[in-house]
Design a protein that fits this description.
Aspartate Aminotransferase, domain 1; 41% helix; single chain; 12 strands; alpha/beta; Aspartate Aminotransferase, domain 2; 14 helices; 2 domains; 400 residues; 3-stranded antiparallel sheet
Amino acid sequence: MLEISERTKNLGTENAFVVLKEVNDLVRKGKNIVNFCIGQPDFDTPEYIKEGAIKAIREGKTGYTPSSGIPELREAIAEYFSETRGIDVKPEWVVVACGAKPFIGYTILSVTDYGKGHEVIYPNPGFPIYESLIRAYGAVPIPIPLLESRNFSIDVDYLEKIVNEKTRLLILNSPHNPTGGVLDRKTLEQIADIVKQYDNLWVFSDEVYSRMLYEGEFTSIASIDGMQERTVIVDGASKTYAMTGWRIGFAANERLADHLARWVTNTESCAPHPNQYAALTALTGPQDDTKKMVESFRKRREIIVDGLNSMEGIRCLKPGGAFYVWPNVTEACRLVKAKDSEHFRSRLLYEAGVAVLSDIHFGHKNEGEGEHVRFSYAASEENIKEGLKRIKAFIEENSI
């Protein structure tokens, strides 16, 4: 019998796409669903960015590029990182890939060795591909719990306890998916003090929501003294410019850039040529559309947080960034006799016509945290209000 590798059989996934299949199946059957699953802006890519790609195609820019990306885009990214992070980034330190996601794997592969017990610390709850790729590439996943009582920030004392000589990589994500939590400068400085005690400890800083911050200014850990050299800064065009399907992400680190580029060569060869010109147009063009999009998300945040907190059995913190909320639905589960958040999620979908994700789609439940679900409020105000109306009715109609 032809066998499938254990690595593949045990490979994790991004459950947003699994639930999306459920949603699409119901929609095809005529069911009306309000969808809060996918972390994708509901805005179209701005016209000037599309025109940048069209111009590139018409000029014949459709072949292979250097694996690290076209020079013009790397220069623009270096300038963008330098201005927005308050550091000096050179173009030769920048690598472009098919989205930001590949850099998770490329970084793990670049700083850990299979089967040597090298540990990678990652946020829990968190983007599920972190843990998935840590395991697939033979490192040891070490979750650090993000607790509601701490506004989903990192407990620095806990971090200090779990870091050791085997730790090779610390993954940070701020603003954070799925909670919308933000790491402030004081916390990042405390994290940096711990990291700098270890000669072989790198940081992967996932900053794809850096432009979606609702209070204060964004801080990258790379801007803290002594941290830039050991930090892989990762960002992309998907969220900031409503370009999810264009698949353009970028990373910067002086020492790792050449190694990351070799991983690109070994996997995807290069990011799509015309799409790189679209990203170049996005970074160097007017930023008005992005600002309008973020302001729209700010309004939607108020609507969904206030709406959820008005419902019996639901408690929701206001996120500081990104476009997600992570409400506690422990009491709501009890009221409607749902055994856990996944059961609650399923019933919302099939009985109320509302699609959300449950906490088990973002890692392991943290002890004592109860039940949570994730909403993406990258949906229209009309859909948010309709979804909230349906959830409230569902809870009221099914309460004990």
